[in-house]
Structure prediction request, 619 residues.
Amino acid sequence: MDATVLAIWLLRLLFLGGLYLFLWSVVRVLLRDLRAAAREPGTELGRLVVISSPSAEPAVGASFSLDAVTTLGRDVNATILLDDEFVSGLHAALTYRGRTWYVEDLGSTNGSYVNGSRVEGVAAAAFGDELQLGNVRLRLERPRR
Amino acid sequence: MTAGSRILAGTRIRPRLRGRELGLLTVVAVTVAIGSVSLAATQDLVAGAPPFSGGSFLADQVALVAYLGSLFLAHLVFVLSGRRTDQVLLPTVGLLGGISLLLMERLPQDLVGGLGLGRNQLLWLLASIALMTAIGAIVRSDAWLRLYKYTWAVLGVGLLLLTFALGHDINGQRLALTIGPLTGQPSELLKVILVVFLAGYLSENRPLLMDESTNIGPLRLPPLPYLAPMIAMWAMALSIVVVQGDLGAALLFFAVFLTLLYVATARASFVALGMVAFVAGGFVLYQAVPHVRVRVDIWLDPFVTASTTGYQVVQALHAFARGGILGTGFGAGLPAVGGLPPGGIPALHTDFPFAALGEELGLVGVMGILGLYLVVIERGLRIAASAADDFRAILAAGLSLVIGVQAFIIAAGNLKLIPLTGITLPFISYGGSSLLANGVVMGLLIALSDRGVEPPPAPGRRSGRFRLQDRGAA
Prediction:
């Protein structure tokens, strides 16, 4: 009789063990999945979200995925077209070097601003910073994974 | 592959092996089988006979084989469908359902009519897994959810009003609705509709909700018209409590709504405002609705009314206490689990399975089960994070959170952490409506996780037009 009670006790623990074995294997799968996602080279390096824009192009709330070099301006050849009368043809460029974003003013008439201060030549920009070109306000956001 | 399925998918379907899913399913099958052996031996011992004298090593061979077979069949269907969908959700749901099956086989079979508790639950579990597999393998486009969100909302409100008018009462709560031969709990279906509607509404109006043009004291709020749905949700939750007496559904809907609002806008002020509205509404309800006052008073001190209204909660606490750390083992809880015969815990199979598991599997067991719900939430948020657009992200987050929040509300209610509300523990509680609705939720989640899925339908134009109209009106 004692042997059967012991056997049943072991079965009970075995069931709980199975439950935790399952959780352990799932966590291993999840960790591998998360590591792979972190290592995966993202197709985008950052995003620009339009906060305010007086014209329909770009629309408020629109989000642009950024490559390593992105130009902004009223010219049709600009990567991101800003249809605003206070924006120059090729107004500014966003470049990703090392691990940082840089804003470069391309000799615009009305200047480029990062968080309200005017960009002289090149200025660094972090995720969450606000850019203003003409009447268009944009926010630099981290890439979506 | 048949010609039909080829036309449906547009391309040739190539089977794709799913090794992780198969491995995890094997662990699930072994674990549930061990549980079944343990249950059979314990039941024989409790009955006073030597173990396995019934001639079988398993508690209910037919049910076990049918259930595990259906899980592997679902796996096979996913392999043949050739989609790159999530491989963790099916085994996780499978283990939850397996624990449910063992528990229902172990409880007194005459708690419900029909084929008895265990066999009824088996049939509902099979139907739920079939639904989940079908949706997960077939659904490739979300346009039917995305484009008709207001239709879904109207359907949901209609269902709610129908329940208000025609529903019949169970234990003083108007929960069940009978249409022709069908009887069900509409709130379970309603929660799916709610998530779909909220995903559509929030993803379309996200920029407007993040605008801060109205100032009330220290709060910066979006334009007031866009707060209307928030107020409507709050009113809906209150009316569910007042008319139906259904605290659980109201709490679930409001919690999911606030969480999704936060997911969509990342604005803490919405959550703060929602909590204030919740506390205000809760206070008024406590004063005005006797049903609510009884529930809160039980929560504050169940031992005062231990033999009347507090009986259920007190017995559940005793059950957790008896379980201790490792539990008494499957089948070894007190005769009706959690109490003296003939009573046990009233509504054990629907509202208190967590207490029964607490007694028989102990602290270690219920921690593991809560871990399974965490896995569902993690997968859902991961699917949301890698979703192609806002609608899919909010939908995936909402679908997994609705399961997680529901599990939390009822588990915490069982533990007297919050006032008890009668909702089901997803995939474990007895009940067809709950199992089928959660099967739909999981199926949609699996369908959403497909990495090779077609891009979201035409972005930009539609929402752009709406945005211009909105600005014109303001």
